[in-house]
Amino acid sequence: MAQATLKRRGLSIAWALSPVLTLGIVSPFIFAFAAARLRSRLLWLATGIYFVAWTVMFITAGLPDSGPGDAAFSIALMIVWMGATVHAFAIRDRVFFQAPDHRSAAFQRAQLEVEHRRELRRRAMEIVNRDPAMAIEMRIGRPDLPRAFDDGGLVDVNHAPAPALAAVLGITPEQAHQLVQVRERCGGFVSAEEAAALAGLPPALTPRLAEYGVFLR
Question: DSSP readout, the chain?
Answer without folding.
Answer: -HHHHHHHHHHHHHHHHHHHHTTTTTHHHHHHHHHHHHT-HHHHHHHHHHHHHHHHHHHHHTSPS-HHHHHHHHHHHHIIIIIHHHHHHHHHHHHHHSPP-HHHHHHHHHHHHHHHHHHHHHHHHHHHHH-HHHHHHHTTT-TTS--S---SS-EETTTS-HHHHHHHHT--HHHHHHHHHHHHHHT--SSHHHHHHHHT--GGGHHHHHHHEE---
